[in-house]
């Protein structure tokens, strides 16, 4: 398994898919280290250690390259979430980019609407996203939301829900600024440390749970997802709305 994982790392490396390659190198190195511990043949141990050393050197080089791309504002990572895939909670997706520097967040999503619309969980999803920010490790003080008005009778419920979230966040000394645009189409999330995340479906990429007492109803890591693509960028300056 270790050899196959490293082979995959090399293939991704040659294809310039460095972020994915780094993950495979790290996993492969861990597996090969376990093989070394279990191997009694000293000659084999020596060969494995040599290869592990080479892979570790390459992994460190890739880390430096990725860091340079971040500093230059050229970093781009793409995550493809397959239909019915699990393990993509907001924590898993965002916390890598939420360091202690983050104090301000911008959310653009046209469908943060009433819970009884077709996108019935969009307000709850936004609430869960806010809960993740409140838990840290970031020190968020301000969240800017740009969305569109719900149509027809759902508008008052939409406003009521957003205002309730807004009041609740005040208990945690977080200000939620809400703005509306009739022409918004893009979906993206930006942090003031320079990270920008674009999700094809916005925050609403989770499927409806099978029931209120089904696995995945509470734990979003266990909730099946709709197919979507996540693009992560790093820029030197995050533009404001």
Automatic annotation (TrEMBL):
- Name of this protein: MITD1 protein
Q: Look up keyword Coiled coil and say if it applies.
A: yes
Residue span, MIT domain: 1-71
Keywords, alphabetical: Coiled coil
Domain of life (superkingdom): Eukaryota
Lineage of the organism: Eukaryota, Metazoa, Chordata, Craniata, Vertebrata
Cross-referenced Pfam families? MIT (PF04212), MIT_C (PF16565)
List the CDD domains.
MIT_1, MIT_C
